[in-house]
Amino acid sequence: MTPERWQRINEMFHAALVLDGQERSAFLVAHSAGDDVLRAKVAALLASHDQAEGFIQGSVFGDAAQLLVEDEAQAMIGQHIGLYKITREIGRGGMGTVYLATRDDDQYEKQVAIKVVRRGMDTDLVLARFRNERQILAGFDHPNIARLFDGGSTETGLPYFIMEYIEGQAIDEFCDTERLSTSARLELFRTVCSAVQYAHQNLVIHRDIKPSNILVTAAGVPKLLDFGIAKLLHAEASRGAATTAMVQRLMTPEYASPEQVRGEHVTTVSDVYSLGVLLYELLSGHSPYHFKTLLDQDIVQVISDSEPEKPSTVINRIEEVTTGGRKGKKLTPESVSKTRDGRPEKLRRKLAGDLDNIVLSQCGKSRPAGTLPSGNSLKTFADTWTVCRLWRAKRRSPTAQRSSSGETLWRSLRPQS
Prior knowledge:
The protein has 417 residues and is of the alpha+beta class. The chain folds into three domains: 68 residues, no CATH class; 88 residues, Phosphorylase Kinase, domain 1; 246 residues, Transferase(Phosphotransferase) domain 1 (Transferase(Phosphotransferase), domain 1, Orthogonal Bundle). The chain is built from 18 helices and 13 strands. Helix 3 runs antiparallel to helix 4, helix 7 packs antiparallel against helix 10 and helix 10 crosses helix 15. The longest helix has 23 residues. It starts with a helix and ends with a helix.
């Protein structure tokens, strides 16, 4: 969709907004000049506005952006970027759209993932972020981080990068599909932590750790994706308040740390927080936070002030969850336990005590402050892994099982603020 066409849709939408019923229909017919696609897109925006009872910012703007992205994604199918031909869209993020592409030079067969910045977001700041991403990933060499093969700009000047195509499921979906036990989920989580630790050792904060950015292959190997909003810890990489503001808008609220949603300084501890939210969901099947609205003030209040329920007790909750704005599935103690340890009582016993403490120490309000230096943040990873390993050993040890749920062990290992 060209900027001119989008401007035409926008103008028709606002002009028709003040009309009712037949007047609106007649207006759309008269001003679309036989362009049925144009009329349909404006009508869809008007319907979304009416359903939202006038709350345009939350619904219509989102639908408008969706229309724009879908048109551009469709237009990219069959196009060439370098030696690769785009075959289909495989994902969308805050800054770009990801496509599956195949090598098209008859030399050899190869599939890759190509991420292209969205039209309308190609500001100097975003372009700098994408150049930063290409540089960061090119230097990464870790078995659980998606590899970067190449990068450049399209004919229209949009940055792209060609990455390893990971065929797999989001980590939460993989765990549920495979019905992984609590122990198996902990082992998978530790592997993810090693990838994040590697990034931190290379002075990179991921900033957007969430299930869809961690794909697990059929062989059970997790791969960490998308350093699109990563920020180098070097002082020269910091670009001030404007950069921080852009990153805030591109974060995923459900997994963002309190310092992120408040627009404060972000450190490696913010990634640890997001890992804590991830672990909470992997173990309990529930999210630790629930937003009444997606208004900034509501998100800040919930993330900053509300205390998550213990994983061992939240599994008792019955609720319906949504994914990507679509109706999702109903969670019950039975459905959550069925994909983990069989029965609600058994899962509750496994989570109670040490694992409750581990998870809440990372995503609860008693977590270390977000300004801790990176060394202490990395120690948090190591301590969590150690407790996870000893937790497994403890459950196999008759002596340890007779202890009061390992509280002494936990106190000796938990990070100190």
